[in-house]
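To assess whether the prediction recovers the assembly geometry, we first specified each molecular entity separately, as shown.
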Amino acid sequence: MGAETIKRIGILTGGGDCPGLNAVIRAVAKSAMNGGLEVIGIADGYLGLIENRLQPLGWRDVSNILTLGGTILGSCNKANPSRYAVREGDRWVYHDVRDQVVEHYHQAKLDALVVIGGDGTMSGAHTLTDRGVKIIGVPKTIDNDLWGTDVTFGHDTAVATATDALDKIHTTAASHHRVMVVELMGRYAGWLALHAGLASGADVILIPEIPFDLEKVARRCIERRDVGKGFTIIAAGEGAMPVGGEAIVDHVVEDSPDPIRLGGVAKYVADRIEQMTDLDSRAIVLGHVQRGGTPTAFDRILATMFGHHAFELLEAGQFGRLVVQREGRFDSVELAEVADKVRTVPPDCPALQAARAVGTSFGD
Amino acid sequence: MGAETIKRIGILTGGGDCPGLNAVIRAVAKSAMNGGLEVIGIADGYLGLIENRLQPLGWRDVSNILTLGGTILGSCNKANPSRYAVREGDRWVYHDVRDQVVEHYHQAKLDALVVIGGDGTMSGAHTLTDRGVKIIGVPKTIDNDLWGTDVTFGHDTAVATATDALDKIHTTAASHHRVMVVELMGRYAGWLALHAGLASGADVILIPEIPFDLEKVARRCIERRDVGKGFTIIAAGEGAMPVGGEAIVDHVVEDSPDPIRLGGVAKYVADRIEQMTDLDSRAIVLGHVQRGGTPTAFDRILATMFGHHAFELLEAGQFGRLVVQREGRFDSVELAEVADKVRTVPPDCPALQAARAVGTSFGD
Amino acid sequence: MGAETIKRIGILTGGGDCPGLNAVIRAVAKSAMNGGLEVIGIADGYLGLIENRLQPLGWRDVSNILTLGGTILGSCNKANPSRYAVREGDRWVYHDVRDQVVEHYHQAKLDALVVIGGDGTMSGAHTLTDRGVKIIGVPKTIDNDLWGTDVTFGHDTAVATATDALDKIHTTAASHHRVMVVELMGRYAGWLALHAGLASGADVILIPEIPFDLEKVARRCIERRDVGKGFTIIAAGEGAMPVGGEAIVDHVVEDSPDPIRLGGVAKYVADRIEQMTDLDSRAIVLGHVQRGGTPTAFDRILATMFGHHAFELLEAGQFGRLVVQREGRFDSVELAEVADKVRTVPPDCPALQAARAVGTSFGD
Amino acid sequence: MGAETIKRIGILTGGGDCPGLNAVIRAVAKSAMNGGLEVIGIADGYLGLIENRLQPLGWRDVSNILTLGGTILGSCNKANPSRYAVREGDRWVYHDVRDQVVEHYHQAKLDALVVIGGDGTMSGAHTLTDRGVKIIGVPKTIDNDLWGTDVTFGHDTAVATATDALDKIHTTAASHHRVMVVELMGRYAGWLALHAGLASGADVILIPEIPFDLEKVARRCIERRDVGKGFTIIAAGEGAMPVGGEAIVDHVVEDSPDPIRLGGVAKYVADRIEQMTDLDSRAIVLGHVQRGGTPTAFDRILATMFGHHAFELLEAGQFGRLVVQREGRFDSVELAEVADKVRTVPPDCPALQAARAVGTSFGD
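The predicted structure of the complete assembly is given in tokenized form:
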């Protein structure tokens, strides 16, 4: 089925905040408008389709948004069409609202949807393609862990922000001869901690893929002190875990659509190091700062190219697919293929090997 | 007693890390060397005088350090000459080591000391002037709360870092319709939260000087939602406290030279807001990032002028004094005068009034 | 005459671009709206009053503009009410259009104007107060050279941008053993070159207030090479001039409202140095980059306080005055007082003296 | 021949300044030292080999340099071993000094050289491999135009710097309704102008690969004005040229190793636009700022991986080769292969196509 039948498209952004979302929205909308299509903005991810909050997007709406963090459309973490979390009294109840979504999609006379989001959003998209909704997915995650693509926009900005924080903390650590443990995002994959750690010259990098041995981490701190470097910088992904242990859970929210919150690996490591050595240690949790801000030039370019390629798929009538970049080329894969898969850091990753070569410890 | 007798000076930096320390060291050292003096660098604050770790500083040592965060001399939080904390077995014991300090001072043939530090460091300096050590103090605090001076270097950089973080968090808050509570430094005075909050357009600013009413804070969040702004940004100084309550203590370290650690006001406020409203809330603790990094141009200039003015006091033989800037002019005050005083935000502070005028809530 | 009669005010921005303009607009508008006033935005400086282009400003218009460079109202360099430049055929003709301006002012039922601008804009404002227009001026210049105030918003951002460029050029100069001459803004006053030069540790600073001797500048470059530092960084204000010479005029635009364009001092100095020594030299002209960009936290705070103080003058009914900051306090002066005066760098300026003390040459 | 014979290596950096040089030096040196090799730093590119200025590099020398712009080894543009430019009287004479270079190489008991540089430096390297010097090349160019590799370190930082400048200029252009033409580096290839233009949303991008038609550029400016956007941003690579014309030569230095200096395309375009339309136009030349500064996180990672891969080639005994990255993988090519070839922007480049899709004009 060709693009000749496509006259009007909707755009939505789902899941957590990510720098470059607006750049994708702009690229899809401008490409589409230049190609003669009408563009509709859907508010707050799938929630806008559930609650029928849709508005036309014009030139003015997508002008001057290239440098803005966040998403002009709004987003939502809890609105999966096949499992929509609603608070009823003191607990959450889950509904399948796909009928509603499809009805609003047709009511608005949409011929296709461009869905920008992460793993959860793409699973949601996949359940809609089964109902005949024509969808093109654009991958989004600051964690860079979406399966099927080598790179996602937003990651470079998150790495830049985390690197900047690590650079700043470096001076305090050095002046005070301290061990500083900095917790970065990354539940399932360590890309962010690996890249920011490598970029800032962290002495130790802890990632979910490589369980760490606290003895070895402590020994590295001591060794550094013994050669006259009183400080050690440790970059830790939030999903990093000790050998034989489990990821550190900050707290569990009873009866919630998102019950488990990781967090606390930095405090865990800093406390143990302080006990095992006589070194002054501190934990820092960088948190949401990593998700926000003006995208880097790299991410603005990448996001624009992702958005443009989504439009090319639209024109080619290739629906039910996710835009990806692999081996330096843009391509696409089936939405079904990416569901529930995480791209983790492989042992032969060049960045990992380069980090080891310059002397970085992974605690293993 | 004139500067004609001054041939050789020592420099030390005490207390927490602060952007611009190296700029002061460079300005003092270059001014002094251009004036024909010898300059000795003292390692790790008073600890270097206690342990006799002193080294000559030359042109090469102070070249290219203007942009560096931290201090090339190192610092120490625990080494007050009249109350030096030493770990003995499982507890801390305090010693008066002023004799030792004075002995090392004379041994090194120092004619004067330039001491760069905060309140604690200046108290230490004061106890040494009583023993005949000629000292000139340079005030240092990112909190801007040192009594006697209108402004201290490092504060502008800390405000810039905090503002940048608040700007980044803004996009996430807006995209997800969340209440974001960001905890900034400031135990006793709210300058950093006030300035960063004003600079970033925070909706609510909480500072130690103005106890906050949680009801009013929650109401502001609700009011914003009701006019279509689903998000609220709250900048909270770590020493902010509820009306009738106390500053929130994160934990108490038993038997420590620094027993009480504040922290947790952001989590306290975020949790309460979430309970009192149906708004999704998150806490972020910015932490040590605020202390580090390359100083802003403003702080490099200010630090250089502070350092230069310290040299002018040296030349004028005016010892036992602290360099200050008041009403736009450099001046000096007695070290004795500033001890144990904190400069808090007064109710008629122009920044505070401007914040109120543009609609910022202080929770009162 | 009290503020009780003020119901509706206009805001305009005149002259060159300056970071912080939107922060002033926001502060005036929000303060005024919170005070129950109506606010009208005037497009493109006085041009909007001449051509009657006025629009109400509401909460939405001034939301989210605190971090934006430029001015949401637009500006214009050529529209002085008493001397409005209009192109007629191949030449410029000047008109007195004050009657028109006053008519549009009354037509829009404005009770007062807040005029944000530099020297030219304030001269224009002064000629309107004579006709009964109630004006409060807010000073604006990245050059920091407006008479009557110690500081103007925008300058800190310009200094930060120039310092960042000088920092970047430093590494190239050092790697290639070159003399780099960087031309910064500042026709009549050297504040920008002085502050950015001091903040970046420039080896030589050339400013309009201190005519430079090329021999001395060249000698400094040679001396540095001879002690093993093959490179020299020179920060030059565009109005800097050789001893006995004149400011370097890039070109003269015949028959123009702005006939003389300075520029070229960097190339002049770099070429002469290369002739006088065997050192490789390069000129860089930073240009308009200095005027743009997101204001620093410092400038956002300062601009907000300036805007708020303008509102306080409005409330107090003190018209025909310019908001100033002197010796750390907000105050105001007569518009008439500031006309045609420039605040230059005095010989006893602390920044100048600090620069000399650390060894910076001013070519004198 | 295996790496078992390699005991001692030299490192040199040649050609223009580039962010990330120190990150490569650090990665090569740390990898080599961790692998048991000795490392010698060669001063000022080939000049150090000609003049026998070599020094051992230790852990301390390569510590804390990851974030530094420039090169700690120094560089030189004029020292090609087979064509070494020497000033004799009033002219330049060229010498083949390869014998001298090879002698010093053997004298220092070097077993291999890591040569970091651009096209000219690699040509020089190639002429030395013919004499038995074992060389591994690491490609360096902010222009990203080295043949054989998809990406070079330094380019991302240059794009970030240029994008930041374009962002800043945007606000001035918009406030004053001006055409702003910004000249960026790129003599033979338009990667920098293309990427920075795309990242900043420039309205027009001019690159050497696509001759521009001034009529079309002017028309775009007029069209924008007619839909209410009074300003236009034009990003121009310095080698961009009009249809049927030639690259604009700023000046020719008679009898020089580097006789032709491009430059002036921005002024050329701005002047013509002002003549052809009634729009106020300005030219800005960004210049050397693009070469300097702290490398971005991306470039620090890339440079570290390039340096590490150079060490892997050393270990594998694969000499006479250049490290490259192609299709997302590290690999190597013969030095001979890359000589005198430039990688230009192809018509089907995804970034170029994305720029066209969002409406950017290339003046064609």
